[in-house]
UniProtKB/TrEMBL annotation, chain A:
PANTHER family: ARSENICAL PUMP-DRIVING ATPASE ARSENITE-TRANSLOCATING ATPASE (PTHR10803), ATPASE RV3679-RELATED (PTHR10803:SF31). It comes from the Bacteria. Transmembrane segments: none annotated. One of its GO terms (molecular function) is ATP hydrolysis activity. Residues 15-173 form the ArsA/GET3 Anion-transporting ATPase-like domain. This is ATPase. Pfam families: ArsA_ATPase.
From TrEMBL, chain B:
It comes from Pseudonocardia asaccharolytica DSM 44247 = NBRC 16224. InterPro entries: ArsA/GET3_ATPase-like, ATPase_ArsA/GET3, P-loop_NTPase. Pfam families: ArsA_ATPase. Transmembrane segments: none annotated. Residues 21-291 form the ArsA/GET3 Anion-transporting ATPase-like domain. It comes from the Bacteria. GO terms for molecular function: ATP binding; ATP hydrolysis activity. SUPFAM superfamilies: P-loop containing nucleoside triphosphate hydrolases. This is Anion transporter. PANTHER family: ANION TRANSPORTER ATPASE-RELATED, ARSENICAL PUMP-DRIVING ATPASE ARSENITE-TRANSLOCATING ATPASE.
Amino acid sequence: MTSPGWPAAFSGVRLHVVSGKGGTGKTTAAAALALALATGGKRTLLIEVEGRQGITRVFDTAPLPYEERRIAVAPGGGEVRALAIDAEAALLEYFEMFYRLGMAGRTLRRMGAIEFATTLAPGLRDVLLTGKVKECVTRTGRDGRYVYDAVVLDAPPTGRVVTFLDVTRAMADLAKAGPIHSQADGVVQLLHSPQTAVHLVTLLEDLPVTETLNTVRELDAADLRAGALIINKVREQWLPDRSVAPAADGRIDTARVRNGLAAAGLDLPAEVVDGLVAETVEHAVRVAAEAAALARLDSELAEPMPRLELPHLLGGVDLGSLYELAEALVAQGVHVRQTSGASA
Amino acid sequence: MSPPKQPPPLKIDAMLDDAETRILVCCGSGGVGKTTTSAALAMRAAERGRKVVVLTIDPARRLAQALGLGELSNEPRRVAGLDADGELHAMMLDMRRTFDEMVYAHADPDRAEKIIATPFYQAISSSFSGTQEYMAMEKLGQLAATGHWDLIVVDTPPSRSALDFLDAPQRMSDFLDGRMIRLLSAPARAGGRGLRRIVGAGFQLFAKAVSTVIGGAMLADASAFVQAFDTMFGGFRERATATYSLLRSPGTAFLVVATPEPDALREAAYFVDRLSTEDMPLAGLILNRTHPVLARLSAAKARDAADNANGPTLAAAVLRLHADRVELAEREDRLFSRFAGAHPEVAVARVPAVAGDIANLDGLREIGARLAADGYPEHERSAALGAAR
């Protein structure tokens, strides 16, 4: 089952992980979520970890350095900051804390040694990235309050996200003791707590739905909490429900369409009417396929999941339309709970 | 405003029929429909009389079923049900098996077993980021070496960037040549004096830090792997180089697949530029899943009329969905003309979106027909548009 809306429990979540199959609009959805959560005077942080500068493309800004930057102002005085975590920089930073590498660090990076180390133990990369995420989530200011009301992580795609979040498993690759180990324990705790939710972005198409269902099962097996389904690019359905199935089969009463057009003041040549009818058939086939995909989600999910919808923007996504998407999320109930003090 | 200059058409049938075309590589960023396009091209070539094999990477379940591919199809299998003089064979890349076979081919059985048993090999053969690309190239090399096929159509792994297909094998090669592993596991002895002078004592510290973090056992394991691998590495690299040069040979053509979306077109543009610097032959761009307007009526006029209609009639619904389609098509044209403006020489075939999934060979044949027609094929145009007349 899926049910529309944002459950009350989600407003207390501090880390919103957003994943999805490639091409579903994961980064756009994460950006819209960060903006929605910041609405009404909150501060959120949007993090990306794959070195692809997707955030800057969505917000149309210059590439992000490895530091937190304000990237957008939210309606009602909130703000979104962004951070692109660079695994190699994070590793170097980490080593710097424990060993003085000095200039050698940069040389090693140029040689590819850092990339090599993270390749050798892919878990290391993930542990470093999630470690930095945790630091942002739990960071408090001088007043003892959390610096961020919520953190949104634009996570790796569904194929890799569970491995990425399964820090316990990643740690098995690494040394049994040492500085990273003690830090990782805290990360594991955060990721498996009710403070974290993993939202999955999908389109109502066969392949993304299949991958979403698989990922929900994998998350469950890894004892991670699935959050909401974010259905992206939901298109307007203009045909009445009862007309969809016959139209998808090519059964459209052309005479009725022609008369209706005439009644609306349009006297169109036959080939234009035929074109309109052909477009209507395609529209109906798509609507029927989307309904079938949604029905699959409804019937194949073992546990009910909340569902949020983002409209398909005909003109594409730019900064202005990102606000539209955020507004749509707010209208569906997305918000952060008022109290933002760090519990002692 | 003058209409934008039209790009040269990509003549799919001429390309498929040309006996000189031996390898077609379909590249593009993830989610643009490379696998389906590869299969449709292969099928069309087979139905036009050639003996074709298509190497798919990760087909959707129903497409795999349509091609008769089970889970373990690391070797080509003939696809039944074609209207053809030619033959279509299909296979699905099994990256792990391909890697294992390669190890067996280059090392004596004892050593091969030993290599395959190391946890490090297990990790690298299943999860290293370039493995899939490397193995796709290896498989392509094998298929080409048999001399069995008129045409090999290759799908490429679903990476974010189309460039990965060209870059990953080199990265993998660098990784496997073991210089770094030797440096890290025995920094005092390896690397040469020159390198040690550059990074100085910092390197020793780094190596120590790395082994503290990822564990001495992991490094030792990696190092054992590399030593065992060393003797076969020459053959390994030679082979990768040979396959890479196959991609440059005159019988090879690249097709870049993109949807009319900014990200996909940007990736396509990077890839086109890269092919030209590498002297690799680009056949053209396949602009996949377009939504051409089928009725000449402006969006504004359609919406006005819909507002004038008496309530939510069928005609009003038809007008509104048409208006949406016009806007979508305009956006797609705008995005594409940006690409075409920067790459006016690239030939293009547009493939209108097929609603729903491809579940059988008829679906593939339909895509093939759209590819060849650069839009809707004649039979469909008359069927769809002539129905009411």
